[in-house]
Design goal:
Layout (H helix, E strand, L loop, with lengths): L5 E12 L2 E13 L15 H8 L8 E10 L2 E2 L5 H7 L11 H4 L6 H11 L6 H12 L1
Antiparallel strand pairs: 1-2, 1-3, 3-4
Bound molecules: adenosine-5'-triphosphate and magnesium ion.
Length: 140
């Protein structure tokens, strides 16, 4: 049997509300196999974005928190990784296209600079000139 690339078990996410904690993702489990596509479908407010943000360690703090469960990517527990390690993984092994471009993209930052930032952050090239060339190549 092929082993999972991403394995989520009993993921539970809570948000703080005026009337106390509210569970917005409840014991979600799934396995994503290498080379396969997995879609989460559900009505608005069912917790798809909260699930994705949890896996990226990008839940809005301190309002939302992971209250239980685990998620392993390539055998690494991505819910418990320190931020420094997570920064190496985000945008390289796991990425997210955010739902609201008007709020998730900085309108004064050009597409080129977005790409160059990601390329240099992951140390794939040496120097800004090479990163710029790589960005242009990707756009081509
Ligand atoms: N900032 C917030 N404060 C309080 N509750 C929130 C907040 N953001 C999301 N929620 C709640 O978390 C739950 C899950 O929301 P989520 O955004 O994950 O849904 P979704 O499945 O992505 O919906 P959509 O299809 O509309 O994108 C909802 O009940 C929502 O009200
Ligand atoms: Mg959403």
């Amino acid at each position: 049997m092929t082993s999972s690339l991403l394995s989520v078990k009993d993921l539970t996410v809570q948000v703080a509300t005026l009337t106390g904690p509210k569970v917005v993702v409840e014991r979600l489990s799934f396995d994503l196999l290498p080379g396969r596509t997995l879609c989460l479908a559900g009505e608005s407010g069912s917790g798809k974005s909260m699930t994705a943000l949890s896996l990226m360690q990008l839940l809005p703090k301190p309002m939302a928190r992971i209250a239980g469960g685990s998620a392993t990517l390539d055998g690494e527990d991505i819910l418990a990784l320190p931020e420094a390690r997570m920064r190496r993984i985000r945008g390289r092994k796991i990425g997210m296209i955010f739902q609201e471009p008007m709020t998730s993209l900085n309108p004064v930052m050009t597409v080129g600079n977005q790409l160059i930032g990601a390329i240099t952050a992951h140390g794939n090239t040496s120097g800004r000139r090479a990163a710029r060339a790589r960005a242009a190549e990707l756009l081509d």
